[in-house]
Amino acid sequence: MARARPRPLKEQFRPGDAVRVLDAYPLGHVRTPFYIRGKTGTVERLCGAFPNPEELAQMRDGLPAQPLYRVRFRQQDVWPDYRGGADDVVEVEIYQHWLEKP
Amino acid sequence: MNDPGPYRPLTYFQLMEISLRELLVEKGVVTEEEVAEEVEAMRKRGYERGARVVARAWVDREYKQRLLANGTKACEELGLEVPALKLLVVENTPEVHNAIVCTLCSCYPRMLLGIPPEWYKSRNYRSRMVREPRAVLAEFGLEIPERVAIRVHDSTADMRYLVLPMRPPGTDGWNEERLASLVTRDCMIGVAVPKA
Asked: Which of B163, B167, B170 shows the shortest CA–CA distance to B187?
């Protein structure tokens, strides 16, 4: 009999929560863009749970699945010299293990 | 005599693709014909499916709500298969303009929009769209007034995005088909807006 698929990890954040992206630089296939590391934003929504792509890239199953969030950042917080209004934002999908409470 | 151009050896990935394909054919997993058909089907796919979804949302308020709540399911309602695609539809309003980019590679809702244009995959677009979206949009001929917020969506993981543009004025009473003809690929990426 096949082993039961482990349940996805528990969600630690909710929409509206402030979150900071880890300022980390591990090697390998990472889907957290460099420009957003160390930045603080707000959870816009939970997108579901997906196998960890960093593990998938190593031919492992990526389970338990990681909650994936859409995080909204104010452009002026991301780029100090940003040209545009204070309401301009960039939204990025980030897996839970890359987020912490600011 | 035609100039054959500068000789370039196969890249690592080209070599990998050929090796894998030949192996799959040799083992009887797929045939060369099936591979060719799939490539052809992929090339033929345009952005018409996306335009159909947008036009339906413009004429049917309830459909629009369902589309914004769950893009994948709403596409299935129209008989559009969007396998392996978690679709998030983002709506332009008088206050917010949305635009899509994938800074890491070239994630794109291919099932709805076909193959992405070359510029979408360029380093120029990918790096600058998150950094100076207003300047990039201006280069596409789209000037967004300061009072309208720009929301850039970086498709970094498992979601795919489609912009739901605003229905242009002067289109009252148009049927879905005629409305769909206004919806271009660029409107659904967010680097253009439909005009009647």
From this structure: B163
